[in-house]
Design brief:
This protein has 282 residues and is α+β, with helices and mostly antiparallel strands. It is built from six helices and ten strands; from the N terminus they run E-H-H-H-E-E-E-E-E-H-H-H-E-E-E-E. 20% of the residues lie in helices and 35% in strands.
Length: 282
Amino acid sequence: MPLNLDSVGKTFGPYTVEYGDRDVILYALSIGAGYVPEDLGYVFEGADGFRTFPTFAVVPGTRALFDAVAVLDADLTKLLHGEQAVRWFAPIPTSGTLLTTWQVEGVYDKGKGALAVVKGTSTDAAGKPLFENVFSLFIRGAGGFGGSRGPEVVRAEPPADRAPDFRVEHQTAPRQALLYRLNGDRNPLHASPEFAAASGFERPILHGLCSFGFGVRAFVDAALGRDCLRLREVSARFAGVVFPGDTLVTEGWRIAPDRIVARVTTGRGTPAISNFEAGFVA
């Protein structure tokens, strides 16, 4: 079935998401926080300095992704989350109301598939900008409609002439995807063996945004002195399949006083995240 391209460029919303400390704690637990005392500020509302880990932004933003899939008439079994970018304008409160407007910025013809770029911008209830998400969705079999191939992607490649400045290993749990989906991404690809098989996978896979959270947490801990509020922007490409239970290895290189490029691989030696770049307050 061809994609519905009539929605491209139109603005939808705002939709409203109300959340509390339970939601930000659940998110932090679902990306592996809480195993060391230093993580207490993410997982205990009574901790001194209790705060929202910044990539929680993807949780209220995910509705824009699924709304766009519905508007585009895309087949969920053919959908792959290709890339993700988040930009922050202010710290995310530990509870409150978020208003999000979104649009499909473009749908590009990649031959064997189509690439849909969806942008969602979120504010607090008073209209103060907090963050924006950009989701790039690859829809297999939806290409060949004669559209533009889209802009060329600038790759954030790690330096080839030196070792990484840090290396962090995180062990994901066999139940990691079942925990992460409680944030609201209930795509059955991450829970149902039958749906995973119909989508071409041997078993349910881990959410790309879960691996993304693990990776960002790794370089916040290793390179930003655990000060997550220094983050300003992160972008990443989901480069391979991660299964619940895999080890995630994040390696990072500081390429400027306020920028890091990184990559995430699995303990099986396969790529997980590439083109991984972060901007932060130096």
